[in-house]
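Good morning,

Attaching, inline, the backbone tokens for the sequence recovery test we're adding to the shared suite. The designed sequence is right after.
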């Protein structure tokens, strides 16, 4: 191979860098050109002037990254097929086995330029930010590593659902109509938490892992219900979060960023206060049987899963109405436990009177350490 054959410094240096033991193709190419007395060609036969324009692409990368907090990054590039084919042909024609390809050299060069401009560090395993450069049209896009948040919430407002419906326009992917959030609004616990957390971290979307659920008419009190949030495409990796924040019927407590994402949904136990109404008057002896409920309850409608009752107490409010307070495993079938279908034992069978659950409120949801009893969801 003739050192000066219509190749720019980068492409010529890449051809010889394995043999020379060099780490920077551009520096090696310039040295070979000076030593050989060759003039740089007007147009490189392989990259077609691509390396000469990398400074402009780096300018755009720096501009787009200016509003984002990051300490590490990764650069990816898309090249024209004709450039890749020319590089493959050159390396094959001259038997340059082990020589880095042009795509590797482009990303390596862009990474060095970007690192010098931003004082950030290139990292392949888990970068804070990934920059994708399409060298066919010069487009640059940025993706940031998700931030994971752990917190609790209390819900004071009855009539507020936990989940928010997906955006009808995009089905939850995120679009202009939903402000890229993927949900239809903020009239739910999910919607208000998403608005608060995405605003704090400059994130695009929030996806939640809940420690249990409550119905629209139920409340959550005490220390609150734990939850985990995955915030996608955040512009800030850290945020100063208040200890408590009132979101209008919902209060978020102790929100903090996590060093690593949570694993499987945790097991937990909770206290549930049920307002129960019977179709007939209930005697004191019958209510006493509810106080004695302990141990496992089998849910035949959910693949015969068993959930435990840890404690039970009863307070009468009228001949046909009473409040039943249970300390139970997460995932306990609250409403069906009262009304009877597919759950054994249940309140209606124990009292021998048909009962219905008018309302269920929750408090003191406690995550249990791995390996202990409890349920993953519910």
């Amino acid at each position: 191979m003739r050192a000066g054959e219509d190749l720019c410094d980068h492409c010529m240096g890449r051809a010889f860098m394995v043999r020379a033991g060099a780490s920077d193709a551009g520096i090696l190419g310039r040295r070979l050109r000076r030593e050989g007395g060759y003039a740089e060609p007007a147009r490189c036969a392989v990259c077609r002037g691509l390396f000469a324009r990398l400074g402009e692409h780096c300018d755009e990368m720096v501009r787009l990254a200016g509003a984002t907090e990051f300490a590490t990054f990764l650069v990816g590039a898309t090249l024209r097929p004709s450039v890749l084919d020319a590089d493959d042909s050159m390396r094959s024609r001259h038997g340059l086995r082990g020589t880095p390809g042009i795509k590797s050299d482009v990303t390596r060069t862009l990474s060095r330029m970007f690192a010098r401009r931003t004082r950030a560090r290139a990292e392949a395993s888990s970068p804070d930010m990934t920059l994708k450069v399409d060298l066919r049209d010069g487009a640059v896009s940025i993706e940031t590593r998700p931030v994971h948040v752990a917190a609790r919430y209390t819900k004071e407002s009855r009539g507020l659902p936990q989940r928010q419906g997906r955006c009808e326009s995009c089905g939850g992917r995120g679009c202009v109509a939903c402000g890229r959030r993927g949900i239809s609004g903020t009239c739910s616990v999910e919607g208000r938490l998403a608005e608060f957390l995405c605003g704090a971290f400059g994130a695009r979307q929030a996806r939640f892992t809940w420690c249990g659920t409550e119905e629209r008419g139920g409340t959550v009190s005490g220390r609150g219900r734990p939850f985990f949030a995955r915030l996608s495409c955040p512009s800030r990796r850290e945020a100063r979060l208040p200890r408590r924040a009132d979101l209008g019927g919902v209060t978020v407590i102790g929100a903090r960023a996590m060093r690593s994402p949570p694993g499987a949904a945790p097991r937990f136990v909770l206290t549930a206060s049920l307002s129960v109404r019977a179709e007939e008057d209930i005697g004191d002896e019958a209510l006493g049987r509810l106080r004695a409920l302990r141990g496992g309850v089998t849910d035949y409608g959910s693949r015969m899963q068993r959930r435990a009752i840890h404690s039970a107490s009863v307070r009468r409010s009228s001949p046909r109405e009473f409040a039943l307070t249970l300390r139970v495993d997460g995932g306990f079938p609250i409403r069906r436990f009262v009304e009877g279908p597919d759950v054994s034992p249940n309140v209606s069978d124990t009292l021998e009177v048909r009962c219905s659950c008018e309302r269920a409120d929750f408090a003191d949801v406690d995550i249990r350490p791995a390996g202990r009893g409890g349920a993953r969801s519910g």
